[in-house]
Amino acid sequence: MPSAWIISIGNELLIGRVVNTNAAWLARKLTYLGYQVRRIVVVPDEEAEIVAMFREALSRADLVVSTGGLGPTPDDITNLAVAKALGVDVAVDEVAKEWVLEKYRQRGYQVTPERLKMAYIPRGAKPLYNSVGVAPGIWAEQEGRILVVLPGVPKEMEAIFEEQVEPLLRTRGPRLCFAEDSFRLVGVPEADLSPVLRDALKIDERIYVKSHPKGHEVGAPLEEIHIYGSAESCDKARDLVARVRQFLVDEINRRFPQAKISAPPQERQAD
Amino acid sequence: MPSAWIISIGNELLIGRVVNTNAAWLARKLTYLGYQVRRIVVVPDEEAEIVAMFREALSRADLVVSTGGLGPTPDDITNLAVAKALGVDVAVDEVAKEWVLEKYRQRGYQVTPERLKMAYIPRGAKPLYNSVGVAPGIWAEQEGRILVVLPGVPKEMEAIFEEQVEPLLRTRGPRLCFAEDSFRLVGVPEADLSPVLRDALKIDERIYVKSHPKGHEVGAPLEEIHIYGSAESCDKARDLVARVRQFLVDEINRRFPQAKISAPPQERQAD
After folding, report:
1. What is this model's ipTM?
2. Chain A CB contacts of B39 below 8 Å
3. pTM of the prediction?
């Protein structure tokens, strides 16, 4: 089973102002993708510390994923540190530069040198499009190891991971079969639903459950619940997802007798 | 400024089933006590990994605090790993044994060898009383470095830290002056108050704010809010606490016009 390390960069984590939810989110995703997460480590915004930690991680893990330190402020130095750890130069990436310029054009902001810094990528690496914010992520490979560098803002980190990284890891990572299923739920507020989803996650490490709020239907909250599972065979993955779906349906009926569960609309399944 | 490392032990953190709130809580406490937290690291429930990490931490930090792996199950091996890292034997500690036996007597449980395992402490170390659960914590010193080993259950970890560890670190750690203040608050549910407390924590790294629910008064929720601050001088610590108190009072009045703020009752201040 290939191994993964997660590196979280940021002083705000080390003074306890922020809880490291990013690491837990990534740990679940990587486990579901078939990686064994062997270490999560938080380091300060200091170049020497970050470079040393990337080097150690790249010498011990098949996959290294980092969060934080990709923004426009002076203490955002992760792209430079990654280049040092890889032993390569850092240079403006023309694709990343276009993304950054376009983001600032849309926002009507000036492009300062600090902001353009976000378009610097280690030579040979590939920028990853950030659909939520500005700072691109980075994908690099060295001696068969994969390095993924993501911003620290959770929404941006999650979007880049789900849109760019997860599809790549599914083809490049462990050979697993993935299955998914979904249903619609009316009448349970998302906050009340979250303990049920948390319980479902305990069924198996290799599942992932997500609720998407879709507004209201006749005054009651409407969500789509998506269930993802992975396993060594497609039969096992499908069984796992079916088991989780059954658990969710039973628990929701038990805890929320007023709730209505239905299949998702046809067009949703086709996308 | 003395340095601290936090080591979190547990596979549940590495598969993303649990968010590492313990580390954030400890990071805030240690910062407030005058330590610079340089690293937070999560390792699996494997002896070799835990021993290696304790050794590395003890070679680089003035204070090492760990959580997890002190319970009665077979994968709870932290006390054995700590002894190996320190290079000493592990033996039944008579004080710890009495605590463990008494806890199980109260609960009416049998004392199995697995449960008695919790009374094993590295030779030369000191057990720390657990007022909430069973597993004692451990305090060890080696070559001027301090090692504190705590259980992973948040309530137990917090109780041992606040009741046993914090008083010791205040005398043994950085020379700081501590100040505190408190007030009573009627009419704001604790959940609504927590964003205000979070904002207050941003004022300075060296403060700590805690709300204690005290039931209800004429149907409205009653809390006592405690503010703690530390600084190099007592004047600075008092100023800091006064500033945070003023912020809290202003924000509470602004967000909850119905709330009532008053001094805590006299007897509370005297304890």
Report:
1. 0.86
2. 14, 41-43
3. 0.87
